[in-house]
Structures are given as structure tokens and as C-alpha cells.
């Protein structure tokens, strides 16, 4: 049983003018052998994309890609014919499978888009490519909401890996409880909004926690906060 903090200030960082990006794990030009992946969790990027700009068409293969839009809107287009705008409060799951190409642009010519992009290694290679998205903004605040999962009983977007991807908007002073069971892994990321306290650990915006083995978590908002929690098989 262990909880290890990942300070947001120690993440990889790049500013390309049109994109400001933070990397919790090695990605692109950021390499840290101590932060390559955590179980099936391979990438956790927090991106801020300027109006009218974005990521041109690029390929993925054998990866489960989840985008959670925190502010603004993200325009998505892919080689399967899928095309949509993912607004704030929605989550999109894309299975790259045997191969997919897609683009992601800020849907606005005025406002910044702020989103998390998360990659999970699938439980096997060769899945058929596909995507789906879900509006979670209408769910109750101050509760953990299962947005993506391989389980059929949670009503979440389906992912090809043993993961439950929770999101939570937590108002100041409110708390939620979560348990990571033995022989599983947890990762909590506090998005760049407010401050959280997890048990006796204070998390600043952008901080994360790596959780190994059974841990009972009491997550309290010091200020209005938004976070994600991944409950994963090893």
C-alpha cells in the first residue's frame, strides 16, 4: 500500500505558442525514465489550445484515447467518418485499434479550449477502430461519475482495458470517498482549477497521486475543484 504524489510543477512542459501542454508521463520531447507509464496508463496530458488552432491529422494505433474537455469546445474529425464537437463537460473515448487518423482543433475563434487527453494501453491489439462521447455535465456535482469503463454495469463509455475512469466536480467543503482495492492501481489527477485534500495530502492544481494497493481515500475540496480518478488493473 502506497500513495506517491506527482507534483504538477515537476511535469513535462512545453509552450508552442498555439499550445501550452503539461505531461504527467514521458511524451514527445519530454522524457523521464521514472515516469514512463503507470499500469495501463501511458499518457496524461493537460492541454490549453488557443482559438482557431489545434492538432492536424495524425495517426494512432492500438491505444485507447480519452479526451475530457474542461473548458471550451474541441472539434474532432477522424478517418472512420466520425466528426463532432466535444464541448466542456463531455468525455470522448476513441479506440485506435488497427489504425485511425484524427484531428483535434479548438472549435472557437475566441475562447481557449482546456482538456485532458489520456491514453491507456488496451488489453490486446487489433480492435476495430471507433469512438463515442458522453455528456457528463448533467450528472450530480459532488459525486464520482464513471465516465469510461470496461464494465457493463456502470453505464459508461466502453474501453478495452480494465479501467474505471471517474470524473468529479467538487464544490468547496464537500467530500467524496473512494477505495482502491488490493492488487489494483489508482491514479488521481487534480485538474488546474482548485485545491484538494486527499486524506492528509494537499493537492495543488495540476498535482497527481499514484496509488498502489488497497487505499481508502477521503477527497475534500479546499476550493471548488475538478479531478479525475482512474481505478485500474495492474
In short:
Helices cover 0% and strands 56% of the residues. The radius of gyration is 17 Å and the shape is globular.
Task: List descriptors.
234 residues; mainly beta; Jelly Rolls; seven-stranded mixed beta sheet; seven-stranded antiparallel beta sheet; 0% helix; 56% strand
Unreliably modeled segments: none
Q: Order of strands across the widest beta sheet?
A: 1-20-17-22-15-13-14
**Overall radius of gyration:** 17 Å
Content of β-strand: over 45%
**Could you say what the CATH architecture is?**
Sandwich
Report the sheet with the most strands, covering strand number, pairing sense and barrel closure.
7 strands, mixed
CATH class: Mainly Beta
- State the CATH superfamily name: Jelly Rolls
Question: How would you describe what is shown here?
Answer:
By secondary structure, this protein is mainly β. It has a single domain, classed as Jelly Rolls. The protein is 0% helix and 56% strand. The protein is built from no helices and 22 strands. The chain has strands at 2-6, 12-15, 19-23, 41-49, 54-60, 64-71, 73-78, 83-87, 90-95, 100-106, 113-120, 130-135, 145-149, 157-158, 163-170, 175-180, 184-190, 196-198, 201-203, 208-212, 215-221, 225-233. The strands form four sheets. It has a seven-stranded mixed β-sheet, with no helix packed on it. A seven-stranded antiparallel β-sheet has the order 2-3-4-11-6-9-12, with no helix packed on it. A hairpin with a 2-residue loop joins strand 18 and strand 19 (201-203). It is globular. The chain starts with a strand and ends with a strand. The mean pLDDT is 96.
Amino acid at each position: 500500500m502506497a500513495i506517491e504524489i506527482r507534483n504538477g510543477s515537476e511535469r513535462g512542459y512545453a509552450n508552442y505558442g498555439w499550445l501550452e501542454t503539461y505531461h504527467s508521463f514521458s511524451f514527445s520531447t519530454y522524457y523521464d525514465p521514472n515516469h514512463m507509464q503507470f499500469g495501463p496508463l501511458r499518457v496524461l496530458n493537460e492541454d490549453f489550445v488557443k482559438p482557431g488552432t489545434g492538432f492536424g491529422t495524425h495517426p494512432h494505433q492500438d491505444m485507447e484515447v480519452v479526451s475530457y474537455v474542461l473548458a471550451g469546445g474541441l472539434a474532432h474529425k477522424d478517418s472512420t467518418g466520425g466528426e463532432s464537437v466535444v464541448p466542456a463537460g463531455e468525455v470522448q473515448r476513441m479506440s485506435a485499434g488497427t489504425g485511425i487518423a484524427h484531428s483535434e482543433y479548438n472549435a472557437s475563434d475566441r475562447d481557449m479550449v482546456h482538456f485532458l487527453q489520456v491514453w491507456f494501453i488496451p488489453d490486446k491489439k487489433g480492435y476495430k477502430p471507433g469512438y463515442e462521447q458522453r455528456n457528463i455535465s448533467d450528472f450530480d456535482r459532488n459525486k464520482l461519475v464513471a465516465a469510461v469503463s470496461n464494465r457493463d454495469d456502470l453505464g459508461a463509455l466502453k474501453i478495452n482495458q480494465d479501467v474505471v475512469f471517474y470524473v468529479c466536480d467538487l464544490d468547496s467543503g464537500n467530500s467524496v470517498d473512494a477505495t482502491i482495492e488490493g492488487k489494483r492501481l489508482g491514479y488521481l489527477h487534480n485538474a488546474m482549477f482548485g485545491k484538494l485534500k486527499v486524506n492528509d495530502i494537499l493537492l495543488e492544481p495540476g498535482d497527481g497521486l499514484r496509488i498502489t494497493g488497497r487505499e481508502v481515500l477521503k477527497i475534500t475540496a479546499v476550493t471548488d475543484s475538478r479531478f479525475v480518478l482512474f481505478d485500474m488493473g495492474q
